[in-house]
Amino acid sequence: xxxxxxxxxxxxxxxxxxxLVRPLVSILERIGIKVWYDEFSLQLGDSLTExxxxxxxxSKYGLVVxxxxxxxxxxxxxxxxxxxxxxxxxxxxxxxxxxxxxKEDVKTFSLYLADIKAFTIERNNLGIAILDILKVVRRDILxxxxxxxxxxxxxxxxxxxxxxLSEIKKQKCKQGKLTKNQLVxxxxxxxxxxxxxNLTFDEYxxxxxxxxxxxxxxxxxxxxxxxxxxxxxxHQEATNRDKSEYYRVLLSFCLGxxxxxxxxxxxxxxxxxxxxxxENYYDF
Length: 284
Hints:
This protein has 284 residues and is α/β, with parallel strands linked by helices. The protein has 13 helices and 5 strands.
């Protein structure tokens, strides 16, 4: 499927916005799904017809929230027929989501929709439907969520023990190879803030491949790199010593530890870096 700006277009009746669609979209957005949704995507003065057409053209899939209110809506019927055009062209783009309706209700609206495998959802239990949606729309995010859950569970169930640093053994077995996407991103980091590490590029990549969740580490370094370059733009007269200090301060933010005792920056520069970190940081 060709690249599109959004992962998911959501077609729904306005009556279902408060009870279902808004909380559903909020969760999808938080976990990284790019959603075309009228509340977020329509601007004042936009043509409704043109905006819907644009959202459909730029979305990989269309989630159709089938409810009692939906079945009698002319605008949602328009969206559905636009999605059908792409289905006829050979793409599987319609993902029906049944919300308080039966198969007989859906048959009245569309025999085709009634025959497509559908998701079901309850307003008090969005989790299962979201996992089903991820299986189709973004399996990569689903894999990351599963890995994150397993790590959290292992930490919660693990035994707490105080050890000396000398007892900690470095991971030696690689967990896998970086993807082409991850390799390109690691290059952008390495030739930026990564130049302050005493590592070759291959050694730098090895560190990611030793990690259980390299994507999480890449994200953290990308945030550091963005802050680093923004700071250089603000201080174009920065010396090599200054640049090295920017790296050390950002590293302390990344690790969640106090600043290194011998930091050679003034407080205003540290505050600037802290502000950039807060501005660029987002959860994995």
